Amino acid sequence: MSVSVLAVLALPLSACGGEDESASPAAATTASQAPKAALTITDPWVKTVDEGMTAAFGTITNPSGADMTIVSAATPASSEVELHEVVGAGAETKMRAKQGGLVVPAGGELELKPGGYHIMLMGVTEPIEPGQKVAFTLTLADKSTVEFSALAKEFNGGNESYAPGH
């Protein structure tokens, strides 16, 4: 056989190989099944305390195309942790557990701040001192988790009263 005949016979074989590679719905499926981008926490901090209650703050960013809901938080620094909101104004300002969790909008951010949304630590039994790093784990509605550490800082504000059971 001549070289040109071999080349013509090899053409259908290479076309078959090309079909297998181009028939890649599995590759498209793999890309669409990639895990969602995780939330990121910028400038996380926690108010120092000797015992009792304190709170954690920072800015949570959601780079994904879908809202993400934080349903719970945990830290070894406290036996009980709640996601909180502050409601009311002036002397009527109260903090309470945020029913349904905290929603971080798609492509947006949620600010945790004194007088607003925050992570409430209730049951702190050992001092949280300035400069200490406090570990946190956030659990999302889809059961995934996000871990971060918050820097302990002295802060004199945020003395709202607590309205449990709301």
UniProtKB/TrEMBL annotation:
<dbReference type="InterPro" id="IPR007410">
    <property type="entry name" value="LpqE-like"/>
</dbReference>
<dbReference type="InterPro" id="IPR058248">
    <property type="entry name" value="Lxx211020-like"/>
</dbReference>
<protein>
    <submittedName>
        <fullName>Copper chaperone PCu(A)C</fullName>
    </submittedName>
</protein>
<dbReference type="Pfam" id="PF04314">
    <property type="entry name" value="PCuAC"/>
</dbReference>
<keyword id="KW-0732">Signal</keyword>
<feature type="signal peptide">
    <location>
        <begin position="1"/>
        <end position="17"/>
    </location>
</feature>
<dbReference type="InterPro" id="IPR036182">
    <property type="entry name" value="PCuAC_sf"/>
</dbReference>
